[in-house]
Structures are given as C-alpha cells and as structure tokens.
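Hello support,

Our group uses your service weekly, and this is the first time we've seen a run hang past the timeout. The protein is ABC transporter, substrate-binding protein. I'm not sure whether the cause is the sequence or the server load. Input pasted verbatim:
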Amino acid sequence: MRKKIKYSFSVILIATFLLTLAACNKDSQTKPSTKKLEKIRVAEVTRSIFYAPEYVALEKGFFKDEGLDVQLMTTAGGDKTMTTLLSGGADIALVGSETSIYVYAQGSSDPVINFAQLTQTDGTFLVSRKQIDNFSWDQLKGSTFLGQRKGGMPQMVGEFVLKKHGIDPHKDLNLIQNIDFANIANAFAAGTGEFVQLFEPTASIFEKEGKGHIVASFGKESGHVPYTSFMTKQSYMKDHKAIVESFTRAIYKAQQWVKNHTSEEIAKAVQPYFPDTDPGIIKTVVERYKSQGSYATDPILDEEEWSNLQNIMKEAGELPKEVDYKTLVNTEIAKKVMIK
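Update from on-call engineer: The timeout came from a worker crash unrelated to the input. Re-ran successfully.
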C-alpha cells in the first residue's frame, strides 16, 4: 500500500512539472519580446521600386532582427533629403552620392559619409510620347526633352548618356529642366515634351495607360555608378557605430534575398509599399531593374564607381571639387557585415 502511495505521489509531481513547463512555453510564445528596439529615422529621396531591397529589409523583418525600429519617410528630391539629414530630422538618408560631395564642397564641419550602396546604375528610362519601333538616340535631336532637376544624378547621367551618343543637350534639344522633381511626370502627362526621363513604376504605368512608350534605359547606357546610397553624418557614425553596423547588416541580408529570389517573389514582398500599383506592373519593373543589374548585391561602394560618379558630374559641369574616395566613403562596416 505504501509503495502505491509513493507511486501515485510521483505521478502527480511529474504531471505538475509537465503542466508548469507547458504553461511557461505557452507564455513565452504568446508574450511579445521585451527587448527594446532602437528607433532609426530614415529619409528616402523618393518612393520607388528601384529601392526594392530597402522595402524587403522592412517587410521581411531584417531590421527588427538587428534590434532596429526603422521609421521610413519619403522626402521628395535630393536637396530636401539632405536638408532633412543635416538638420537632424533623420538619422540616415537614402539619396544620390553626389549630394555628399555638394555638402563637403560647402565646407561642412560634419561631412556626410556614404556607408552602404543600394543601387549601382541609373534608374531612369527614356519615354517617348509616340511609339517608336526602331529607336535611335539621334531621333532626339530637335525635340523637346523634359529632363530632370539640374544638379541631380538623373539629370547628370541623362546628359552623360546624350553626349555619349553625340547629342549636345543644350544645343541639339529644347531641354526643359526647371520643373520640380515631383511634378515631372505630371507635366509630361499634361502634354509637355516629346520625350521625358522617368523613374519606375511611372514609366511602365504611362506605357500601360498609353501616355508614353519606354524606348531606352539610361541605366544600361551609363554603367556602374553609386546612384543611391545610405549615408549619415560623420558624427552620427562615430557615436552610433553599432547601430550603423546593424542597419548595414540588415541591408546586406535584403540585397542577398533579392539576388536569390525571383522577380515575382520580390514584387510580392514590396507590394505593401506600393498599394496603388498593379502587382503586374511591380513585377515588370523589378524584372527590368534586376535584369540590368541595378540592385547592388552588397553594400560596398567601390573606388571605380566613385570615380565614375565624379566623371559624370564633371562632364555635366556640376562637380564643385574633386573629393578623395576615402574622405566620403566608409566601406569598413560593409566589409565587416559580409563576413560570415
């Protein structure tokens, strides 16, 4: 009888232990993590499928995995984006690398440092109002061309490509470039210009709606260039090096994810950031950018790309001064996060 009592008591103890363990496991599964995420304010120069890896990092939780709560804002135009960064309205900016050169040339005591490249080609396309079956660049001569804002990367790359094809943008065209970045597409839709330089998905949307026809890619024509990079003030990088490293690691994970997944999978991942855009258009745009190598597969901005950038700026007459690669580019963190 005593053995039976001991046996029953042991069973009760084991059952109680298992129930307690199960309850603990249930609590750990239902209670949110108490780890506090570090808030990071990121200003992007525009909302574009061109920046797909950034949205993948957000949607797939790569930033949260690194302990970051990224608060994304869109500040239309390079000048506005840089102003937001310099005034303390953002911690990190996604914008053309040329803006860091402009800031440095003005004698800034706290220069802006490029630490992670996102795109490595121009992201604009030449759109014609009329359909052209056999396009050649010399067909632009004598036309009214609606270009991008003077001093920005789209405009400089656009002029670089035109000159490459023997076209003087200021003599051979009626060049319009005094329209604000956010209103260029609307101006073309309203009837201004015979040709326009547009980002995606606007170019593909116009094509689908019959407002224009994509006839060439400026990205294919211009070669590799640090078109858009993540950058921050030198002081922020010094005081928050761990945060910048975590941020860069998340971007690299996203870049590799984009590299290893199909255009359809990428389009599905970034869809929430383009709720008003047809999923088919998003897929088409992603495929177009991916096929021409626009998405950088790692965050390193190399010296050759930096040199190409300054050559393009010089050709456009917009380079205020030559700036050494190591002065405004930091690849130390990018290289570190790539080590497995």
